[in-house]
Design goal:
By secondary structure, this protein is an alpha/beta fold. The protein has 10 helices and 15 strands. The radius of gyration is 21 Å and the shape is globular.
């Protein structure tokens, strides 16, 4: 039974471009039934499994972010009756061929990952009305009945992340940056920026945010989601300008930011960061000691649900919106910072979460979700 909150409201969300490679790769959990040794004509053939197929964006299946989370959702959906596989995209020109390849394989559902696949997914869905689709981080207005559009209001947990960063900063300077200037990137940055401003308002402080201004919608972007060197260089610039907490919203590029933080730490600097999309201590454990928390979206649960409902014959399409209230977005555990985040700050964050959920604490409304 679907536990995720679904609403008909269309919040024009988009997704970070991710994933890599154009070759087909199957899930390692996929199994093939062995042929029966019986020669009796009444032996029943093994039932065909429901096939869940995923097309990545250009960040790679192991991007520690959108693609990896989506693939995890496929794997979590696998069972004795469901199997999964994926195709990687090395460039945007791979989207249509990969989707078409899966249509030819008669997949029970095709999951596409990312804002940049919105048009290709829509065109395929309209051309093949009986084919079921799901897309991560993109919605349609009006909704399309054979596309399950999965989006996440990450301005909410981004706000929490900004408040936490402001409360933990010793230099009173924090920074955020994106991979590309897409709505599903800047929505995180909007929330982060506003969370810092809210902390300043409540505490009479002047913590500055480098890399983004929610009011002007201007900031810093590396131009991709794959080049870790770009992330490392930009983070080094922020550190040189006094930032001691960094929040990259850039997929694999964020690993470059983590490397810069690690290097600064080895040189005696007290710099930490927050990860994005997934729990960084799980997806990039080598840098866990620098992750105060992660600003997460529940991609894997939403993808799993889309697949399971499709396999069960209860697929309805439409737009799903993950929020703090329904568990679709959240801050990850503090892990190695559990004893370092002051109890008073943790209590404030609990109150902020409740305020965002009940509407008493406004978050930016102009950002697409």
């Amino acid at each position: 039974m679907r536990k995720l909150f679904r609403t008909a409201a269309i919040l024009g969300m988009a997704a970070i471009a991710l994933a890599a490679c154009g070759s087909s790769t199957s899930s390692t959990t996929t199994t093939t039934a062995a042929p029966s040794s019986s020669t009796t004509s009444t032996t029943a053939a093994p039932a065909a499994k429901f096939l869940a197929c995923m097309v990545t964006d250009t960040g790679g299946i192991d991007d520690r972010s959108f693609n990896a989370s989506s693939w995890q959702g496929v794997q979590e959906a696998e069972s004795s009756t469901i199997t999964g596989k994926y195709l990687q995209s090395t460039s945007q020109s791979d989207y249509v061929p990969n989707i078409d390849a899966f249509i030819g394989q008669k997949c029970g559902i095709i999951v596409t990952v990312g804002f940049l696949m919105g048009d290709a997914t829509q065109a395929a869905a309209k051309a093949h009305a009986s084919q079921k689709f799901a897309i991560v981080d993109y919605t349609y207005s009006p909704s399309i009945k054979n596309i399950d559009a999965l989006v996440f209001n990450t301005v909410q947990d981004g706000f929490e992340g900004g408040y936490l960063a402001a409360g933990m900063s010793k230099t009173h300077v924090v920074a955020t940056f994106g991979g590309l200037k897409l709505p599903t990137v800047t929505i995180y940055m909007d929330g982060f920026w506003d969370g810092v401003q809210y902390y300043n308002q409540k505490h009479g402080t002047d913590v500055k945010v480098l890399g983004w201004n929610e009011q002007t919608q201007n900031g810093s972007f590396t131009g991709d989601f794959t080049n870790q060197g770009n992330g490392q260089r930009l983070t080094n610039t922020f550190i040189s300008e006094g930032a001691d907490i960094i929040f990259p919203v850039a997929g694999n590029v964020g690993l470059g930011a983590a490397k810069a933080v690690q290097t600064a730490d080895a040189a005696g600097g007290a710099v930490n960061m927050e990860w994005v999309d997934t729990d960084g201590c799980i997806s990039a454990p080598q840098y866990c000691k620098y992750f105060i928390t992660s600003v997460e979206k529940g991609i894997q649960a939403a993808v799993k649900n889309a697949i399971v409902t499709a396999a069960a014959g209860s697929f309805t399409g439409g737009n799903y919106i993950g929020t703090l209230a329904n568990g679709g977005v959240q801050l990850a555990p503090y892990h190695m910072f559990a004893s370092k985040v002051p109890a008073a700050l943790q209590a404030e964050l609990t109150q902020i979460k409740a305020g965002i959920e009940n509407g008493s604490i406004p978050t930016p409304t102009k950002s697409p979700v």
